[in-house]
Write a structure and sequence with these properties.
The chain is mainly alpha-helical and 234 residues long. The chain has 10 helices and 2 strands.
């Protein structure tokens, strides 16, 4: 299987695990029920607006969108913390692997001779999972009114989708399968199966070279003995 495809599968597995963990922890959110109710209404209003059959105006949608995000701030914060702990701290503790990467035999390693520290992994999660945009979104919902937040949120949503697409294209079509998060964090993801094959081939080549050197040295020794013998008998 191609490394880029394995990376996508591993990411989907990890993201599903993160969402399950976050959902369990979010049960502690005192605004959870209110957020769920507002979000359900927001989806219905959005659907009606898109079909042109809505009795609601845009101002009502902006206000509803604003209230939904404000009540969902705690759950968003829990999701952010879960993402950072999972893709940052856990992956660092497991030496470049997550459950998804372990399953797909992948590993995050340095793209240079420098060893990776937890900062590299935290930078990866900030970019890959758009955590920095999620943080900005939470700040904006408390800093601005519904009208300004609607415009800012639209820009953040567009930027988030764009970054996901850029990362996906880079991982799929670059020869080294490095995404934007890899470039900024000085990392790359290797296929452990391929790495093992390369290592085996390298070891075989080294062994072959060693055998040839031993054979050459042996021939030189034999030649030296012969020369010494002929000199003694001449």
């Amino acid at each position: 299987m191609d490394t880029s495809l394995k990376r996508i599968i591993a990411f989907i597995i990890d993201l599903c695990l993160v969402l399950v963990i976050a959902d369990v922890v979010c049960k502690l959110d005192p605004y959870r029920d209110k957020y769920a109710s507002l979000n359900k209404e927001l989806l219905e209003v959005t659907k009606e607006l898109n079909t042109g059959s809505s009795s609601y105006d845009l101002d009502y949608y902006k206000e509803l969108n604003y209230k939904t995000y404000r009540n969902g701030a705690v759950s968003s914060g829990i999701t952010i913390v879960t993402l950072v702990l999972y893709f940052g701290v856990l992956q660092y503790a497991l030496k470049g692997q997550t459950p998804g990467k372990k399953l797909m035999k992948l590993k995050v390693v340095s793209n240079s001779d420098k060893s990776l520290n937890i900062g590299n992994y935290l930078l990866r999660v900030l970019i890959l999972n758009n955590v920095w945009l999620m943080l900005i979104n939470i700040i904006c919902v408390f800093a601005f009114n519904s009208s300004v937040f609607y415009r800012v949120g639209s820009i953040i949503g567009l930027l988030s989708n764009t970054m996901y697409m850029v990362n996906l294209i880079m991982v799929m079509f670059r020869s080294d399968n490095r995404g934007l998060h890899d470039m900024l964090a000085n990392t790359k993801v290797i296929d452990l199966n391929s790495a093992a094959i390369v290592s085996t081939v390298t070891d075989v080549k080294k062994e072959s070279i060693k055998e040839k050197e031993q054979k050459i040295n042996k021939n030189k020794s034999v030649s030296a003995i012969k020369n010494k013998y002929f000199k003694m008998n001449s």
